[in-house]
Amino acid sequence: MERTEGTRDIAVGVIDGPVWLDHPAFTGRRIYEIGGSPPSTCRNLGSLACTHGTLVAGMLAAKRGSGAPAICPGCTFILRPIFPENTEGNDPMPIATSADLGTAISECVAAGTNVINLSASLAQPSSRGDQQLEEALDYAAQHGVLVVAAAGNEGTVGSSAITRHPWVIPVISCDLQGKPTEQSNLGRSIGRRGLAAPGENITSIGSDGKSGTFYGTSAAAPFVTGTIALLWSEFPTATAAQIKLAVTRTAGRVRRTVTPPLLNAWAAYLAMSRN
To answer: How confident is the model at residue 49 (pLDDT cuts 50, 70, 90)?
Structure first.
């Protein structure tokens, strides 16, 4: 973050709820909307979908100095809302169907994104929906679009159609001491290919005009997405496979646990510098 804000040539897809784009912290940012239902701009600022989408987008796209992490505000952002504003409940991670996620991922790939942030958990799986989601993730891999996905907050050990796909980088949340939080989902595929990132009391842009905090794997995933966007901005000729390897490698050791290692952005930068 000290080296760059990111470049406009790197496009970050955000699949989430609608975003309150009138917030001053988004002024001057290159933010584009795709899809039409639900709308990309919040209509109900108090809805869970708007609050969640704005917090996630704020972590990535808000101006530096806004109070949010503002990881890569110099990049281009493509919003693809997936959660309607009538979403209710207190879960920090909204739920989507496999089919809807598959459609959203495919549209982000077609729109020219380099990396997609996915902070959503899946509703009850279905064979048809999971197949569509798998095909969309295959499509992303074929086009060199990285997919960063929150692992989920159910506190279970296992996998989903998202986290078990070999192209996806699953992300769990950790506390300030780097220990996995109790609600984070763990699993073999998550431990082998995923990362851990901060996910407790993360401050970002609130949809009420004030700063807000949230937690869980939804809050952790943007740290990984933002790291990838900054790395690609510094090394624009790198392939998706090179960026993915630099971010996820762990001193060459084979992972055998259900718990992934901590994100180390500086180590990833040094790894890319040596290539």
So the answer is: confident
Other residues' Cβ atoms within 10 Å of the Cβ of residue 63:
19
Which CATH code of 2.70.50.60, 3.40.190.150, 3.40.50.200, 3.40.50.300 fits the domain covering 11-274? 3.40.50.200
Would you state the structure tokens that stand for residue 209, as one six-digit string? 């005009």
Alpha-carbon span 13 to 116, nearest angstrom: 4
Average pLDDT of the residues in 154-166: 89
Is a pLDDT exceeding 80 seen at residue 121?
Answer: no
Structure tokens, 175? 């506390």
Instruction: Determine the Cα–Cα distance for residues 192 and 159; give it in Å rounded to an integer.
Output: 12
Distance of alpha carbon 213 from alpha carbon 236, whole angstroms: 33
Q: In 10 A of CB 103, how many CB atoms?
A: 18
Task: Give the residue among 231, 169, 179 at the shortest CA–CA distance from 200.
Answer: 179
Q: Residue 170 contacts by C-beta under 8 Å, 6 or more apart in sequence? A: 149, 150, 151, 162, 163, 189, 190, 193, 194, 195, 260
Could you tell me if 59 and 220 are in contact, meaning their C-beta atoms sit under 8 angstroms apart?
Answer: no
Say if strands 30-33 and 211-214 run parallel, antiparallel, or are unpaired. Answer: unpaired
Beta bridge partners of 117: 14, 148
As a whole number of angstroms, the distance between CA 59 and CA 144 comes to: 24
| Statement: residue 256 has pLDDT above 90 | no
Structure confidence by residue, pLDDT tens digits, 93-120: 567 788 889 999 999 999 999 999 998 7
Please say whether the dihedral angle defined by the alpha carbons of residues 71, 251, 163 and 140, taken in this order, is positive or negative.
positive
